[in-house]
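>> received
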Amino acid sequence: MELRSLRACACALALLLALACERAERKGPDEAVTQPSAPTASEALGPGEARVDVDEGGVTIECQAAARGLLLEKLAREGRFELVGDLDARPLTLELRGQPIETVIAALLEDLPYRAQWRFDAKTDRHELARLEVGEIRAAGATAAATGESAAEKAKRRELADTLRQQIRERREQDRGSEEQKAELAARREERARSQADLLEQLRSSNPEMRIEAIEGLDPEGPALAALLEVLRSDPDARVREKAAEQGGEADGFLACAGLLDALGDREPAVVLRALASLEFTCDETVLPIVQKHCDPATDPAVQARCAEAIDFLQ
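>> returned
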């Protein structure tokens, strides 16, 4: 009797094992649960955003459609080397981690000529990048005819913008001359520095009118530029962002240009119109692909018309 019970248990166990194996074999690839792949670091960033780190382990760059000139400027600051030459706004998407700086530079400038100069650091016992020259390096005996021709063509396209820039510079350079004027100017600068700090504090006001008033008084070419661009990017009131875009047109440099390009994606047509007007005097023809990218999906008639004018001006 006990023997029969043992045999019955063994048979039941074998049957269960057979059923389990059969079910496992029936499972196909369609039944497998696929987990969505996690986004890469560059995909997690928004368009135009970038992260640049330089440490003993190498260089890390993560960016999503970020302007190349902006990436190079960030790399120069982090790597503490001098950057000279013509910087453009070609959008790049990269994900480089712990790479030697020469590898990173080659990736950033794959389609441009460049020259790197190195120095030896006795403290770290290694060579470090001292200077990076971007763009065509002309020989002293370059043909004057070719140089003159390209300069004439560019001057024809940019004559109006250069004239306006010069007028702005002359206005800011006025009152410089005699010792008395210089002393007065120094006093004004000191007073202006204090007022700039007050205006930066005023930018934190909950009243949009107060923030607009602060923007009107800020110097867009001074340390306040970063605060001005942050307002242009994130202020909740479209009138404030529009005023920031207007002030951005009086700033020089790639950071101001990049901020105005980002503003072309603003949801308010008034902000986009003001940014288009300002970037004509802050940017150059290298930003045309980015301007075109923002203008193509535009549906507002005024924005479409202003886009066409800006593109024609920059060409």
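>> The first strand starts at residue 50 and ends at 55.
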